[in-house]
Amino acid sequence: MAKLTQDELLAQFEELTLIELSEFVKAFEEKFEVTAAAAVAVAGPGAPAAAAEAEAEQDEFDVILEGAGDKKIQVIKVVRELTSLGLKEAKDLVDGTPKPVLEKVAKDVAEKAAESLKAAGASVTVK
C-alpha cells in the first residue's frame, strides 16, 4: 500500500461523518495506546489570574422575566415569539414571574430577547 500524504489523509477525513470520525479516533487511541486529549501546559506564576479571568467570562446567559408590567398581552406575545410556547404556556410563564424565559443562550441572543421584552413593557434580568 502506498503511503498517503498529510493532505491526502485530510481529504479522506473530510469525507467522513462526525460519527465515523469519532469511531476512527477511538480505534486510533486503542491501537496506538494514546489519547487525543489536548496537552495541558504547566502553569507559571501568572496562570491563576488568567484562570480567574476565564472563569469570570461567562458565555451562557439566562433571560429572567421579573414582571409583565401594564402590557401583559404584549409580553405574552413576545414570550411566544422567543420560546415557541403555546398561548397557555406563555401566559402561565408570564403569570408566574419571576421565571426564566430563555436559559443558557449566547450573550447577543440574551440581549436581543431582553430588549424585546423591555420594549413590550416587561421587567427583565439577564444573568
Would you summarize the structure shown here?
It is built from six helices and three strands. The protein is an alpha+beta fold and 127 residues long.
Describe this structure in words.
This protein is of the alpha+beta class and 127 residues long. It is 54% helix and 14% strand. The chain contains six helices and three strands; from the N terminus they run αααβααβαβ. The protein has helices at 6-14, 18-32, 47-56, 72-83, 87-95, 107-119; strands at residues 61-67, 99-105, 123-126. It is rod-shaped and about 75 Å long. Helix 4 (72-83) crosses helix 5. The protein has a three-stranded antiparallel sheet, with helices on one face.
Notable features of this structure?
127 residues; alpha+beta; three-stranded antiparallel β-sheet
DSSP E strands, number: 3
Summed up, the helix count is 6
Instruction: State the strand order across the main sheet.
Output: 2-1-3
**Spans with pLDDT under 50 lasting ≥5 residues?**
none
How much strand? 5-15%
User: How large, in whole angstroms, is the Cα Rg?
Assistant: 24 Å
Distance between the termini: 57 Å
- Shape, principal axes of CA atoms: rod-shaped
Task: Give the integer mean of the pLDDT values.
Answer: 80
Element-by-element helix/strand order: HHHEHHEHE
Give a quick account of the main beta sheet: strands, pairing sense, barrel closure. Answer: 3 strands, antiparallel
